[in-house]
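Changelog-linked ticket: flavin-adenine dinucleotide example.
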Amino acid sequence: MVVVGAGMAGVQTAVALREQGFTGRITLIGAEPHQPYDRPPLSKAVLLGTAEGSAFDVDFEALDIELILGRAVTGLRPADRELDTEAGPVPYDTLVIATGAEPVTLPGVEAVPGVHLLRTLDDAARLRPVLAARHDIVVVGAGWIGAEFATAARAAGCAVTVVEAADRPLAGSLPAEVTAPMAGWYAEHGVELITGARVTGVEPGTVVVDAGTGAPRRLPADAVVVGIGARPATRWLAGSGIATDPGGAITADESLRTSLPDVHAVGDCASFPSARYGRRLLVHHWDNALQGPRTVAANVIAAGAGEPPVSYDPVPYFWSEQFGRFAQYAGDHADADTILWRGGPGEAAWTVLWLRDGALVALLAVDRPRDLAQGRKLILSGARLDARRAADPAVPLKAA
Ligand code: FAD
């Protein structure tokens, strides 16, 4: 049993295999040299220096998991059931791919000094002194990572400007009606948000931005942090014959098996068809890297016992800590769903519900964790809501 990628999904797969009684040999191979660690704290406590690291509390030795760190897997030859690594081939009987995602870079500026990404512990370690020095920082991208980084940088006393190509933050995730109040959080925390703008150049100490109105703006920047998305880390699979989509995600089936025999894929690197939502989901969030591995482990064991596989059809969940708020999202919404507000967008705490044919399919709760907990259960059960009652934030969320 070989697991490639020693992030959340890879570690959880190895642990779940042992928890579910797998007694065979398990080898976990990771490219990074560090003890496997959790990523969410990298844009929060680790960045601010209030936590030293975020290593997983897992005793690999006690679980009899062989951990090979600092070794990138460079290829997969399914006909030989072998992986290629920097230190030679590694054979497998069953393989789990959990290589996660890698940040999208801003073309042409990767090598400019002072330009940073935020994906790894090393990235966070490079950014900590930048924050401590209270530099002027330009963040490119007003997505989840950009907002969290801006929050931390402001907390550290930096001057922060966020440049976003779309006309609003989180344009790829949420509708304009929902992001409207969120855009105000930037100014409230002293962050300038420039939307509809493109970075046209990065020079030492300056970022040049074209907002389409008049002359380009030159923003002072001791450091630039690029947070414009991530793509599945699957380039190493080129030539293996594994099925991927145009964006690079491994297209797993409903049991998280890939197109290759005895090869599974889980976490940020793989999409899967959701019967619940009627479409293929690619989830780049922590909870998916926790839940998916349990299904993979169960299916590895089931395959060994000649039993049928179980399906993976979660209600996706994630959270974000930004601008002093705790935002939590569960489910999956579509443009055609009906939006229902619980609490006004101008209030300190509010929840947005998405209804499809009267049933709750998704919600975003801002500082209303009880709504999230209750709503998640209602989504799971496919419950219909009474819209009038559901819109009243004083009434607990429950089925009609
Ligand atoms: P990864 O964590 O990316 O792990 C994959 C591992 O595989 C990496 O260590 C990588 O080095 C290794 N690898 C890649 N290629 C190879 C190779 N060829 N050979 C060997 N090893 C390889 N989600 C939330 O829900 N809430 C949050 O608040 C939140 N905050 C986040 C903050 C940051 C800064 C980041 C980066 C992510 C955050 N996320 C959050 C997302 C969450 O951390 C990811 O969804 C989760 O880490 C995915 O786990 P994974 O194991 O699939 O991938």
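Closing comment: Example verified and attached. The CA atoms of residues 241 and 260 lie 8 Å apart. The domain at 324-390 is CATH 3.30.390.30 (Enolase-like; domain 1).
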